[in-house]
Amino acid sequence: MAKRPAAKKAARRPAARRTAPSRPATKRSVKKRPAAKKSAKKAARKAVSPTRTRPKSRPRPASAARTSPLFAPLKGAERRNIGHVQLEVGRAGKARVKRMIYPPGFHWAKDMKPITGTDLCMHAHVGFLAHGEIHIEYADGCIVEFKAPQVVEIAPGHDGWVVGKEPVVLIEIDFERDTAAVLGLITHSHTK
C-alpha cells in the first residue's frame, strides 16, 4: 500500500468552522396544533381518565388528626386514663389546666357513670373545645351542641357524648371540686 501525501489528508478534513460574533439568543419557533386537534385530544384524555370524584376539601381522617401537635404529650403534665378519656393535668397558680381527649364513641353514661357512681356528671367544665364535636344533655332534656373551635361552659348535672368519627379535645381551667363555685356555674339554666 502506498502512503497518501499529507496534502490530500488535509483536503478530506472538513473546513474549519467560522465563529460568528455572539448574538442574543432567540426563541425557537414551535409549531402549534390547530384548535380542533387540541380539543379532540383533550376530549379523548377525559374519556380515558375519570373525572375527579372527591371534593377538593374533605375532612381529615381520625388517624391524621392524631399526628397534630394538639394530640402530642404535654411536657410536665400528669397523665392518666379514666373511662377511655386521656387526661393530662398541669398546675397554673391555684388552678389546673387540663387537656382531655375523648375518643370517638365516648358517652359519659356508658364510660364514666360506672366510675363516678352518679347519674350525671356533677363537674363543671369551662374552657376551649379545640377539636371535634360533643353534645351535652342536662337533666331537663336540654341538649347543647359544641363544635370546635368554640369556648365551652358546661354546668354540673349533665350527660355528654362525642359526635362523629373524630376525637374531641377539650382544654379547660379547673379548680377541682370548687370549679363550679369559683367560676359561678352553680346550675344549668335557659336564661342567657
| Number of helical regions | 6
Q: The CATH topology of the domain at 63-183, please? A: Jelly Rolls
* Fraction in helix: 10-25%
User: Low-confidence segments, ≥5 residues, pLDDT <50?
Assistant: 49-59
**CATH homolog superfamily of the domain at 63-183:** Jelly Rolls
Arithmetic mean pLDDT = 78
Topology order in helix (H) and strand (E) letters: HHHEEEHHEEEEEEH
Q: Rg to the nearest angstrom? A: 36 Å
Kindly, what is the distance between the CA atoms of the first and last residues, rounded to a whole number of angstroms?
116 Å
Q: How does the helix and strand content classify structurally?
A: alpha+beta
Report the count of strand segments.
9
Give the C-level CATH assignment of the domain at 63-183. Mainly Beta
Just name the CATH architecture of the domain at 63-183: Sandwich
Form type: globular
> Tell me about the biggest sheet?
6 strands, antiparallel
The percent range for strand residues is: 25-35%
| Lateral strand order in the biggest sheet | 1-2-3-9-4-7
